[in-house]
Design a protein that fits this description.
Helix content is 53%, strand content 11%. It is mainly alpha-helical. It is elongated.
């Protein structure tokens, strides 16, 4: 899993976008002021992994959907294929993967 895909990195990303300190986010999530910054630092660094209920609380404090913080781990091409087909069915999304002249892959969203 890439670093950006981890919940901790995503928590940090959205916290920084909001201009919040670790302490402010921790307090907003219900931690005591004495430990709020330490707890958020542990989640952001990956030392601890927040359970789903806490992810929902953090997402609310950050003003994002819980799914923005909890990216599913895709373990195989088949699982990815099924996910993309489900997205296509649900939202009319079509994903095309193109190989450029430089052998780079690009994902295009089209209809």
């Amino acid at each position: 899993m890439s670093n950006f895909m981890s919940p901790g990195r995503r928590i940090r990303h959205y916290r920084m976008l909001r201009g919040m300190t670790q302490k402010a986010l921790g307090i907003a999530a219900g931690f005591s002021p004495e430990t709020a910054d330490i707890r958020i630092a542990q989640y952001e660094s990956g030392v601890r992994t927040p359970k789903h209920a806490l992810l929902c609380t953090l997402a609310e404090a950050l003003g994002v959907s819980p799914s923005a913080l909890d990216i599913p781990r895709i373990k195989s091409h088949e699982v990815l294929k099924q996910l993309l087909l489900a997205l296509e069915d649900e939202y009319g999304l079509t994903v095309t993967i193109m190989i450029t002249k430089n052998n780079e892959r690009k994902i295009c969203n089209g209809k």
